[in-house]
Amino acid sequence: MQALMLLLWTGALLGHSSSQDRAGSPQEDSPAPDTTGVPVEEEDPFFKVPVNKLAAAISNFGYDLYRVRSGLSPAANVLLSPLSVATALSALSLGAEQRTESTIHRALYYDLISNPDIHGTYKELLASVTVPEKNFKSASRIIFERKLRIKSSFVAPLEKSYGTRPRILTGNPRLDLQEVNNWVQAQMKGKIARSTQEIPSGVSILLLGVAYFKGQWVTKFDSRKTSLQDFHLDEERTVTVPMMSDPKAILRYGLDSDLNCKIAQLPLTGRMSIIFFLPLKVTQNLTMIEESLTSEFIHDIDRELKTIQAVLTIPKLKLSYEGEVTKSLQEMKLQSLFDSPDFSKITGKPIKLTQVEHRSGFEWNEDGAGTTPSPGLQPARLTFPLDYHLNQPFIFVLRDTDTGALLFIGKILDPRGI
């Protein structure tokens, strides 16, 4: 009965296509003519806005990156801010000749959108998602080998659209690490720890993407209700973690029978939200949910969830990640960037991508803007009590409401840390 009452969409609306199927990606403004006599579905007006369409494209890149990263570490937490990595790649494409540029643009799904000013629109997107009230910081940098002569015709558009200048290594590992750490600290306002990993020798091009987010709920949690509770790592093992509770939480909810998961969305200040995917049974195998994730699927969820009142428990979370996503990108049809790319718009010397680093920090606690839900949120009347307990492995997606951009994505198998 519960499933019937809260099953809020059909399989057709969800469009459960494989992550390898690009039919679910943002399409051209004009739908292709249909020769079968079946009416062609109109594109959602949301995706006709250039900045939203670009956000959907690079978010689809982000879901691809997440899937590969998760597949490489199936038994570990995953924390990614794919936007910072996408930004570094998009900026690098400014220096690529046609063949290499096409490789990057296809990975970022730019080939499926018609936008003569991708980089100008990217500037607009970055400005939108990093306004102070969103509590989200993201920055990217391109670092080149020592003594490289860079063309000014590359630096000028890089600075114009992405607000960054390339860095050339000195060749002194200690000084180079210090400079990178200082840059990260300045960009992230000291919220991300300094790295102790030396810049490796033999770097030709190093891409660095960093991001930080501290969520502030629209309705804060009562810290007096936070207590140590069990989190089920799997069917046999549990750990005890601080869990925040709200016996009368107002959230948006739906049950997906195809994915066998309960979906909930909690609003954050700054027109942001977090969408949680919680399997009906305790499992660390979240592949079915992961395979369904696309910008369009998340957008459909955002439109279809219903506002309800529920008993909510959620672990306090403070996670960080520092490491490479080089191997993940190599598995995403970007291997040629590491072998024999053409970056002759950057320099006359043959250079290639060597390493892609990602550093991120993410946290939420009881903090919120108010003690009562927004007046406009009227929950649906339910004839039964509903619980939503994030006390087992789950996936979360941090989404910007205005643009639809994917800002963070996490697979939480153990909330105690990465």
UniProtKB/TrEMBL annotation:
Q: Which GO terms describe its biological process?
A: negative regulation of angiogenesis; positive regulation of neurogenesis
Q: Where is the signal peptide?
A: 1-19
> Which GO molecular-function terms appear in the entry?
serine-type endopeptidase inhibitor activity
User: Which of UniProt's keywords are assigned here?
Assistant: Glycoprotein, Secreted, Signal
InterPro entries in the record, alphabetically? PEDF_serpin_dom, Serpin_CS, Serpin_dom, Serpin_fam, Serpin_sf, Serpin_sf_1, Serpin_sf_2
SUPFAM superfamilies associated with the record: Serpins (SSF56574)
Q: Where is the Serpin domain?
A: 63-415
Question: Could you state one GO cellular component term attached to this entry?
Answer: extracellular space
Where does the protein end up? Secreted
Region spans: Disordered: 18-41
- Which top-rank group of organisms is this from? Eukaryota
What protein family is recorded?
Belongs to the serpin family.
Q: What is this protein called?
A: Pigment epithelium-derived factor
Species of origin reads: Odobenus rosmarus divergens
